[in-house]
């Protein structure tokens, strides 16, 4: 039986660390690290994520500032809010929940956030710093995956890691972090011929494709560690004949678990780590901004 890498347990450890760091920050500077969370529109999943982010921030001793804007918010209004948050010394981290409504330009908004307050780590300055191995704010989901991998495997040097998916939010930064940890890294994507054959060579497999249960046992090297980043809602026929909604990952957990060394579940795996790392990044940003201000 594979080790179940429990994101709820590991994220609670991360959040404990954030809470004591936040208390020390308050002691030193007389203010709480501040996280501004911006939600545009009423996407139900985004509302849940934002609610959870605010709850974790409050529990960890951070000051969370919530901005809910209507669906028809203009790019100018959102830009003005981001500019105000950039200028506000009480705000150390800014997070604009994605996806934005289709009429808004995500790339432009991400670039408008001050790189020092970009706790998502999506700003081109932070992306560039990560790719050359310089200190940066690291995207939360891949950061959470690295914490889980290092907790279960220790030193990752020399391991062959296969990342399935090449998104800017997960696949690319994940590959950069694995490379920084001295793994040999293969990225597999929609244009890769025979991706399964490459995936089968991975000591570590990270699935971030957004396709429910796409990765079966025949993608996995026996004894591999499997990190499932996917969060997909599917509908299945339940025992009473009606349809049931279920949350599944990109990995077919039941099929893969018997061949893996360790595996993350969905839910309760990578998801809670994403939120915990957001809190961690807010602390990192707050400390740096405070040092830069020289106060
Ligand atoms: N600005 C950002 N937008 C988005 C990000 C992000 O990192 N920054 N990531 C995702 C959504 N996301 C965080 O925002 C996120 C998704 C899922 C979870 C989570 O804890 N999932 C639970 C299940 C929750 C459920 O029942 O629906 C789990 O996996 O156990 C946390 C954060 C896209 N947007």
TrEMBL record:
Residues 5-120 form the Tetrahydrofolate dehydrogenase/cyclohydrolase catalytic domain. This is Bifunctional protein FolD. It comes from Oceanobacter antarcticus. InterPro entries: Aminoacid_DH-like_N_sf, NAD(P)-bd_dom_sf, THF_DH/CycHdrlase, THF_DH/CycHdrlase_cat_dom, THF_DH/CycHdrlase_CS, THF_DH/CycHdrlase_NAD-bd_dom. Keywords: Amino-acid biosynthesis, Histidine biosynthesis, Hydrolase, Methionine biosynthesis, Multifunctional enzyme, NADP, One-carbon metabolism, Oxidoreductase, Purine biosynthesis. NADP(+) binds at residues 165-167, 231. Pathway: One-carbon metabolism; tetrahydrofolate interconversion. PANTHER family: C-1-TETRAHYDROFOLATE SYNTHASE, CYTOPLASMIC (PTHR48099:SF5), C-1-TETRAHYDROFOLATE SYNTHASE, CYTOPLASMIC-RELATED (PTHR48099). GO terms for molecular function: methenyltetrahydrofolate cyclohydrolase activity; methylenetetrahydrofolate dehydrogenase (NADP+) activity. Catalyzes the oxidation of 5,10-methylenetetrahydrofolate to 5,10-methenyltetrahydrofolate and then the hydrolysis of 5,10-methenyltetrahydrofolate to 10-formyltetrahydrofolate. Its EC number is 1.5.1.5, 3.5.4.9. Homodimer. The lineage of its organism: Bacteria, Pseudomonadati, Pseudomonadota, Gammaproteobacteria, Oceanospirillales. Residues 139-288 form the Tetrahydrofolate dehydrogenase/cyclohydrolase NAD(P)-binding domain. It catalyses: (6R)-5,10-methenyltetrahydrofolate + H2O = (6R)-10-formyltetrahydrofolate + H(+); (6R)-5,10-methylene-5,6,7,8-tetrahydrofolate + NADP(+) = (6R)-5,10-methenyltetrahydrofolate + NADPH. Belongs to the tetrahydrofolate dehydrogenase/cyclohydrolase family.
């Amino acid at each position: 039986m594979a080790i179940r890498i429990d994101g709820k347990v590991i994220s609670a450890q991360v959040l404990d660390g954030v809470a004591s760091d936040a208390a020390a920050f308050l002691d030193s500077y007389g203010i709480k690290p501040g996280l501004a969370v911006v939600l545009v529109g009423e996407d139900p999943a985004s509302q849940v994520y934002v609610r959870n982010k605010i709850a974790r921030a409050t529990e960890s001793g951070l000051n969370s500032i919530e901005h809910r804007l209507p669906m028809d918010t203009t790019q100018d209004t959102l830009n003005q809010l981001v500019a105000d948050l950039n200028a506000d010394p009480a705000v150390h981290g800014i997070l604009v929940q994605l996806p934005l409504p289709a009429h808004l330009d995500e790339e432009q908004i991400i670039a408008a956030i001050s790189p020092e307050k970009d706790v998502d780590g999506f700003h081109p300055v932070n992306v560039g710093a990560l790719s050359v191995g310089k200190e940066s704010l690291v995207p939360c989901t891949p950061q959470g995956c690295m914490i889980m991998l290092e907790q279960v495997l220790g030193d990752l040097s020399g391991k062959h890691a296969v990342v399935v998916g090449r998104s800017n939010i997960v696949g690319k930064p994940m590959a950069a972090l694995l490379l920084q940890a001295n793994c040999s890294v293969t990225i597999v994507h929609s244009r890769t011929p025979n991706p399964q054959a490459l995936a089968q060579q991975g000591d570590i497999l990270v699935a971030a494709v957004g396709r429910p249960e796409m990765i079966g046992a025949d993608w996995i090297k026996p004894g591999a560690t499997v990190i499932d980043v996917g969060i997909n809602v599917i509908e299945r026929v339940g025992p009473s004949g009606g349809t049931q909604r279920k949350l599944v990952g990109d990995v077919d957990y039941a099929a893969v678990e018997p061949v893996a060394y360790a595996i993350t579940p969905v839910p309760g795996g990578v998801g809670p780590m994403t939120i915990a790392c957001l809190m961690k990044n807010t602390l990192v940003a707050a400390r740096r901004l405070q040092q830069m201000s020289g106060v």
